[in-house]
TrEMBL record:
Source lineage: Bacteria, Pseudomonadati, Pseudomonadota, Alphaproteobacteria, Hyphomicrobiales
Name by which UniProt lists this protein: L-alanine exporter AlaE
Pfam families: AlaE
Membrane-spanning ranges: 9-27, 39-57, 77-98, 104-124
Keywords (A to Z) from UniProt: Amino-acid transport, Cell inner membrane, Cell membrane, Membrane, Transmembrane, Transmembrane helix, Transport
InterPro entries listed in its UniProt record: Ala_export_AlaE
């Protein structure tokens, strides 16, 4: 059991850190208008927060998908997007505020990130499921796979 918990933590963390370091950095630079040094500070702040929030997001997403029971690809896309939006946007606002964004930079950054969460919810859900499979784990409703698998 401890091994599965460690693998779950590692899979969810690696998936989140890789995916959102890239996505958030691009949003900060090109949507929020932050300078590259501000982006670097933001990502430095964001990395430990991602480590702390990756597994809780995994729990949240699994629970949210379980209670909403999406039965079609379209409804899964919508529910994955809502799950990601509801969990990540408040954290993101804190990160860009702490890294120096103010006023309209926060508003445009948060709105841009919210749109990205709606667009990237399902791609991130698939990315997360991919990493979980690589770590020999399953998401609710999936069949178990081996580590080699």
């Amino acid at each position: 059991m401890a091994s599965e918990k460690l693998r779950s933590f590692a899979a969810d963390t690696v998936a989140l850190v890789i995916f959102f370091t890239i996505v958030s950095g691009l949003n900060e630079r090109f949507i929020a208008g932050m300078s590259w040094p501000e982006v670097a500070v933001s990502r430095a702040i964001g990395a430990p927060l991602m480590v702390l929030t990756a597994r809780p997001y995994g729990f949240w997403r699994d629970w949210f998908l379980k209670i909403t029971s999406p039965r079609s690809p379209g409804s899964t896309l919508i529910m994955d997007s809502i799950a990601l939006l509801a969990f990540q946007v408040p954290i993101y606002v804190f990160i860009i505020f702490a890294s120096g964004a103010r006023g309209m930079g926060i508003v445009t950054g948060a709105l841009g990130f919210a749109v990205l969460m709606l667009i990237l919810g399902r791609p991130y859900g698939l990315w997360l499921e991919f990493f979980r499979r690589r770590f020999g784990l399953t998401s609710p409703g999936q069949k178990p796979m081996s580590l080699g698998g």
